[in-house]
Amino acid sequence: MQSIPALQAMIEPLRNAFTAGIPYISGTLCASSDDLGLFYNTEKETRFLHFSTATVEDLDLLEKACDAATFGRNDQNVLDETYRKAGKLDASNFASGFDIHVSGLPELIANKLLDGQGNMRVRAERYKLNVYGKDAFFKAHKDTPRSEDMFGSLVLIFPTEHAGGSLVLRDASRTWTFDSAKALQDHSKTSSDSIPGIAYIAFYSDIEHEVTKVESGHRVTVTYNLYQVPCDPSSVSSGVTEKSEMKEILSGLLNDSNFLPGGGYLGFGLQHEYPLGRLGTECHRKVYLQRYRDLLKGPDAELMRAASQLSLDATLNLRYLYDNDHPKSTNVLCNFIPPESDKEIEDDYTIYLQYELDAPEISSRMLYDPEEKQHPWEAEWEERNGQEYLPNESKFWVNWVTPVANNKHRTTFMAYGNEPVLTHEYGQLCLVIQVGPFGKRQTASM
Ligand SMILES: O=C(O)CCC(=O)C(=O)O
Ligand SMILES: [Fe+2]
To answer: What does the similarity note say (predicted)?
Structure first.
């Protein structure tokens, strides 16, 4: 079997391309006067304001018309002003003059955050209006998934005087800050338009994010949940495939006789999380993860596409590990969401998955930085045994290019969301690509 250091060196460019994606797009839009009108309900009446002329008093009145914004903590809807301090109006209580359908935003978002192949379009569902007054904020959370096809969130920030209230996004190793107050000021300085612009940011909703404290003024937003919808096939232009860096790197590896000469499996912990039907919601059959193939986001979608264009068999899985602390702990791969069982399951859930649900057992080799991400026993295990394992020592070896999550018997609830968890929760999937021996790399029947 190819040694771990040799394989690590070869795989690095692929890992770099896979982990380099940017999970959002942001900017400002030129607005028409109609875009900046807002009707909203108070308990007694319907009021109107126009963002280009609204005074501080007008915005104070809007803020007062709002309810305190709640959020989801596990499956509870909570009001906790140490975690989220902001006002909200539900979609039924306001009407904005901004028409998302003529804004061009759904097309822009589809282009940048969906597969880039034009197979999917974006449906934006208006969700809430929020007013962040002085000292308002929203601490780190993810946006609660409402269905399998919800992939993102869009925030419009209207042109009202304020400072602070940046949106900060974070993944495992990177942080991005969108200072919408500054973006709106810059827009006014550089635009010849007399009408102020609208700032926007769209991001994958499984990315952790927070709104920093508003220092002064009012930050008024309208948020949308973003869903992906297949396009009518006749409207998809055939043959237009975007150039893919990952495909080029992977294809270079397949043509190299030193890369996995006898074939093998490459595993990737995906870069994004996906809304899985919540466990415990009376599903008594396997739900195959294949259905998520067309719902993958950003780099995950690009990798899946590269594998299938190169005729490699690629499957989506949940990886279950019986015992985190035990070097010989059983690892199994499920290409399905395990059904609810009527039986009381003994403590070794992986045995149940293996013997009752036919999930294959695997052995793992970690190709990612052991210092940072590897569990201590894994590093030790590799050191002692990594290079001496014979391929036939276990049936199914997976070389992990990026860290893979350990799913427990039950997936844990998302701790902090913008809504309590109802039917779906985020799951951490992995993609396992089978590579044939040199000269016969293709493993998928196309
Ligand atoms: O206002 C923002 O920039 C983000 C708000 C947010 O994260 C939410 O409402 O879930
Ligand atoms: Fe959010």
So the answer is: Belongs to the iron/ascorbate-dependent oxidoreductase family.
> Which pair of structure tokens corresponds to residue 145?
């998934």
- Of the bound ligands, which one is closest to the alpha carbon of residue 142? 2
CB neighbourhood size of 418 (10 A): 22
The per-residue pLDDT for range 389-413, each reduced to its tens digit, is: 334 444 678 999 999 888 765 444 4
CATH 1.10.8 fits 31-234, yes or no: no
From the CB of 418, is ligand 1 less than 6 Å away? yes
What ipTM is given for this predicted complex?
0.99
Alpha carbon 150 to its chain's center: 10
Q: Separation of 62 CA from ligand 1 center, angstroms?
A: 18
Q: CA 292 to CA 115: how far, in whole Å?
A: 13
**For the chain, where do the domains classified as CATH 2.60.120 start and end?**
31-234
pTM equals: 0.90
Is residue 65 within 8 Å of 40, Cβ to Cβ? yes
Distance 416 CA to ligand 2 centre (A): 10
